[in-house]
Specification:
Elements: H1 2-21, H2 28-33, E1 39-48, H3 59-74, H4 79-102, H5 114-123, E2 126-136, E3 143-156, E4 159-163, H6 165-170, E5 179-187, E6 190-198, H7 202-214, H8 218-227, H9 231-238, E7 245-249, E8 252-256, H10 258-274, E9 286-295, E10 305-308, E11 313-316, E12 326-336
Antiparallel strand pairs: 1-2, 1-12, 2-3, 3-4, 3-5, 5-6, 6-9, 7-8, 9-10, 9-11, 10-12, 11-12
Helix pairs in contact: 3-4, 3-10, 4-9, 5-7
């Protein structure tokens, strides 16, 4: 009986020891190391928005793509075959249209022109001030939040030009143009923030900068851009003997008469003049994301500051994401007491 009691005591002692040692199989110690990020922060950073200006994209590229879409739409190609038709048409007419437009492209669109150099320098270092409110995320995310941009500051020489949400709205941007949701996960002192998109319209930023910072006349620039497109000459280069245009997609024949083809060119030209300096779509969006470091200056387990990691950045949606120009972002944020 005595041996039985000793065995039971030993088992009980071992069980209690294992229970204490494994009281939190998920690792409460790891959770205690997570810095509390919840709160409001004033964010001050620098964005590099100049990368689209250093690409090889030309006015001819822009117009060839616009004309391709106009031709496919005017020919009545059904939606399921549109992408295939656009690829085919661009392959057929792309070189002729690009060469024809670029041969007459205005000097200010040359990458080495004074305008493009000043624009690249100005957009290469834009000060961005915003406020972000961070809290707990949903089922799949540790982090949830909302960022509101308050100002963009563009510098030329000693002059600083400020673009606000109100001014951007006057240009036709949506009400939510300067705000975006944050979602992501936390590991210790690091937040991994998913890509989030601003609807602030890159083309608007370029157009506003050209007019208000560089000081160029937008109307004269648009006129020079339009003059580079001679629809009569271009349509002769791509049309058949009767002046029309025909293609075969998915075993179906589609075509445009000479009049319809000329109308497609006029429609493409109208859309070209709506683009910023003839190249960048007004509604091109900007996307950012990456790691954010949580800085606990006083060691109380609560973040006092946020700092972007080297991998924080994104892309500018003037082209499909896979080939879109990159967005550089560098920021630091300070907690705001509420």
């Amino acid at each position: 009986m005595k041996n039985l009691r000793m065995k039971l005591f030993a088992i009980l002692t071992l069980t209690m020891s294992l229970t204490v040692g494994c009281s939190d199989p998920l690792g409460s110690d790891d959770e205690s190391e997570n810095i509390d990020f919840r709160g409001n922060y004033l964010v001050e950073g620098t964005w590099d928005l100049s990368s689209p200006l250093s690409s090889q994209r030309t006015l001819g590229d822009s117009f060839a793509e616009l004309l391709t879409r106009e031709i496919v739409a005017s020919a009545g190609v059904p939606g399921v075959a549109e992408e295939e038709a656009q690829e085919l048409v661009l392959e057929l007419i792309g070189d002729d249209i690009r060469n024809g437009v670029d041969s007459r492209s205005p000097d200010h669109l040359d990458r080495n022109s004074d305008l493009m150099q000043e624009l690249a320098q100005t957009l290469g270092s834009v000060r961005v001030v915003s406020e972000v409110e961070l809290g707990e995320g949903g089922i799949l995310d540790d982090v949830g939040g909302l960022e509101n941009i308050q100002t963009f500051e563009f510098t030329k020489g000693q002059e600083v030009h400020v673009l606000t949400p109100e001014l951007l709205k006057e240009m036709g941007a949506p009400d939510i143009a300067m705000q975006t949701d944050w979602e992501g996960t936390q590991t210790g002192d690091t937040l991994e923030i998913d890509d989030h998109t601003f609807s602030l319209q890159y083309g608007d930023l370029v157009a506003w900068t050209v007019l208000n910072v560089i000081g160029s006349d937008a109307n004269s620039l648009n006129a020079a851009t339009s003059a580079a497109v001679e629809c009569d000459v271009l349509m002769q280069d791509i049309s058949g003997e009767d002046g029309g245009f025909f293609l075969s997609v998915a075993d179906e024949e589609y075509g445009l008469t000479a009049i319809a083809l000329a109308s497609a060119c006029d429609g493409a030209l109208a859309k070209l003049t709506e683009k910023a300096i003839g190249v960048f779509a007004i509604d091109a969006k900007v996307t950012a994301g990456g790691n954010v470091l949580l800085l606990d200056d006083d060691g109380d387990g609560v973040a006092d500051r946020l700092q972007s990691h080297d991998n924080f950045g994104g892309f500018i949606g003037v082209l499909p994401e896979a080939i879109a120009p990159r967005l550089g972002v560098d920021f630091e944020a300070t907690r705001i007491e509420r």
